[in-house]
Design brief:
Blueprint (H helix, E strand, L loop, with lengths): L1 H66 L5 H35 L16 H29 L3 H26 L2 H4 L5 E3 L5 E2 L17 E3 L2
Antiparallel strand pairs: 1-2, 1-3
C-alpha cells in the first residue's frame, strides 16, 4: 500500500510537470504567434511606405522630364528608365501589401498600421539609394528574422509569404543597383514586368510562368 501511495505521488508529480511543460510550450507558441502578427503589421507598414515612396520618386522624375527640354540625352534616358523602374517597384510593393492584408484577414489578425506620407525627393539618385537601402535591409535582415519567428509559431502561411516577399525584395535590390551603376546605353528602352501573383519584377519579357510563384505569363504585366 505504501508503495502504491509513493507511486501515486510520483505519477502526480510527473503529470503536473508534464502539464507545466505543455503550458509553457503553449505560452511560448502564443508569444511567437503574437510576434508574427506584430511582424506582419511591421512588414505591411514598410510595404505601404515603399509603394508610396516609389510613386513619389517616379512622379518627381516625370515632373523633371516634363519641365525641361534641355536635359541631355544620356541623362534623359536614365531618368526615363528610373521612372519605369520606380513604377514597377510601386506596383510590386502594393501587391505585397495586399498579400499581407489578405493573410491577416484570413487568419483573423488585427491590422494596425497608421496612415503615412512621404516627402518629395528632388535628387532622384538620393531617392533610389534610399529605396535600395530599405529593400536591402528588408530582404537581408528583417524578413529572414520574420520567417524564423513565423515557423516557431507554426504559422507556415506567414512564413511562406515572408519568403516570397524576401525573394522579390532581393530582385528589387538587383534592379535598383543596376540602375544606379548602369550607363544610359544599357538602360535605354529597358522595360520592367511585374507578376500580379507575387509582385516579382523582371527586366526580361516573360515567355513562361513566373519563376517565383508559378503564375502564368498572362499575369505578368509591363509596368508603365
Amino acid at each position: 500500500m505504501q508503495a502504491f501511495f509513493h507511486f501515486s505521488r510520483v505519477f502526480s508529480v510527473f503529470l503536473a510537470g508534464g502539464a507545466l511543460l505543455l503550458w509553457a510550450a503553449c505560452g511560448q507558441r502564443d508569444d511567437m504567434q503574437q510576434a508574427t502578427i506584430d511582424n506582419l503589421n511591421t512588414a505591411l507598414r514598410l510595404e505601404r511606405n515603399a509603394a508610396l515612396a516609389a510613386e513619389v520618386y517616379a512622379s518627381g522624375v516625370e515632373d523633371k522630364l516634363g519641365a525641361s527640354a534641355e536635359i541631355q540625352k544620356p541623362q534623359r534616358i536614365k531618368l526615363q528608365a528610373a521612372s519605369r523602374l520606380l513604377r514597377a517597384v510601386a506596383l510590386s510593393e502594393t501587391l505585397h501589401a495586399r498579400m499581407l492584408e489578405d493573410l491577416a484577414r484570413e487568419r483573423g489578425w488585427k491590422i494596425d498600421v497608421p496612415e503615412t506620407s512621404y516627402p518629395a525627393v528632388h535628387d532622384i539618385e538620393v531617392g533610389v539609394r534610399m529605396a535600395l537601402q530599405g529593400e536591402d535591409f528588408e530582404g537581408a535582415v528583417m524578413l529572414p528574422a520574420f520567417i524564423k519567428t513565423a515557423r516557431a509559431a507554426k504559422e507556415e502561411g506567414a512564413a511562406v509569404l515572408f519568403e516570397r516577399i524576401t525573394a522579390a525584395e532581393r530582385e528589387q535590390v538587383r534592379l535598383l543597383s543596376e540602375w544606379l551603376n548602369g550607363a544610359s546605353d544599357v538602360l535605354e528602352n529597358r522595360a520592367y514586368w511585374v507578376c500580379q501573383g507575387c509582385g516579382n519584377i523582371s527586366d526580361a519579357r516573360p515567355d513562361a510562368a513566373c519563376v517565383l510563384c508559378g503564375a502564368p505569363a498572362s499575369q505578368i504585366t509591363q509596368a508603365e
